[in-house]
Amino acid sequence: MTLSKMSALRHASVRRMMGALALLAMAAACAPAVPDDKIFTLTWGKLGIGYESFVGTRNDCVMAASVVTRDASGRENPMPAVSASRFKSCMRARGWEPVAGGYSAPLGYDVRIVD
Question: What is the DSSP string of 52-63?
Fold first, then answer.
C-alpha cells in the first residue's frame, strides 16, 4: 500500500470517527452546545489546498485541542470541549490562516469551546 493511500485511509477514518463522536456528543449532552462565534465564524484558507484537506486538518486540530471539563459537582462533562487557543494554534501551525471567504466547518460539526 502506498503512503498516499495510507494517508487517505487515515483521514477517512478520522472523519468517520469525528462524525460518530459528534453524534454521541449531541445525544449525551445535558445542555446544548453554544459555539464560540469567534471560532465558528472564522473561515480558514491555505493557498492551493482544497476543502477535504481543510476538514481533515480541522478534525485533527479539534482532537488535539480537546480538553476535559467538569460540571459544578466535579463530574466530567459528557460533551467534549475544545480549547480555542489550542485549536487556533494548531490550525496556524499547519499553515491555515483565518481569511474572509475561506473554508468553514461542515454543518453539525460544532463543538463546545472553552478558553
Answer: HHHHHHHHHHHH
